[in-house]
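Please, structure for the following, as tokens.
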Amino acid sequence: MSEGLDGGCVGGVSWRSRGVVSKKLVILAFGILVILANPDLVPTDGRAPSKKPFQSWVKKGRIIAPGFAGPQSQSRVSAPSIVRLKNGQLRMYFWATGGGRHYIYAAEASPKNLYDWKLVGAEPVLGPSPSGNINEKGPSFPWVVQQDDHWLMYYVTWGSWAPPDELSNRTGLAISDDEGIHWKVLKEPLLPLGKPGEYDAGVTGSVAVLKTGPQTYQMWYTAGERYAILDWISPGFKRGIVHIGHAVSGDGIDWVKRQKPVLSPRLDAVKPYEAVVSKPGIILMNGTYHMWLSVFTMQEGGGYRLNYARSRDGLAWERFANEEVMPLTPGGFDSNHQSYANVIEHGDELWMFYVGNTFGATGIGLATMKKSDLR
């Protein structure tokens, strides 16, 4: 072989070729070191390697289907709120829809078998108001706070008070003196709307409430600001812009709202357009607030997906906006959407009760995760 500008050949491999091979060997060795340091990247079923999930939730499937509570739940079962009873049973308060009206029901199950729920009663614990235009279509989105002397239920009303084609939700409050069996409406609406131009000028909606001190309650609530006209979807298309606000109370009944939201949608700063952050579900664990929220983006077949944020004080939140909480399930009850999560602690695990497609039209499911895996 003739010697050329490459510096000749040895053993049939030119100096240039040997350089390329050396680079490939270095890259291969680096890849092996990465895999050895990150065994979660190694596939076990022939698939291409993938990164470790952001949160390692294990889906357990659907636990309640539409129709569970009869005709008044035929269209939807949704927005679960879970409390633990003195006897160890779990009670789920949930939103049901049927016949164009909204209701809140309660059901109980043993933690040993969360596929076998029994209604607390055949009738809803809360239904449409017989008068007025705030809640004549009925309540939804319960959040229950247990206390020694009385229980509080925060919920969302559906009425006709708002202009046509606009959201008509307001936050309400009911009280129970018999540990959540019978409820009486206490305040409807509970929160005043903000002034024009403020982040909650349009609606107040679903909430998460935690009692964080002897006389300290904190609320994170869905807050509708305004409607944006998104002509790029269709001429004159209206979409509500929804934030998460914060309020404090000394008794859980009278509230003082913060002037600014604690979380807001990213709007056109991202693609697809992000219009809504809503329905916070929050736990306080080891000094950190953990929030699972529902995010609505304007994409083809768009709908809600779950997102996660955390905070040390409940006010300044670190949102992991680009991380997927759970993948969708092809052919499952959550094949297109996931939303309205309620997370509770159970031993060394977290249990997430969440909603599948189309706001609960396919039911409520369960996922679990080790507390030590939460990040």
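The chain has two domains: 1-52, 58-373. Residues 1-50 have pLDDT under 50 and may be disordered.
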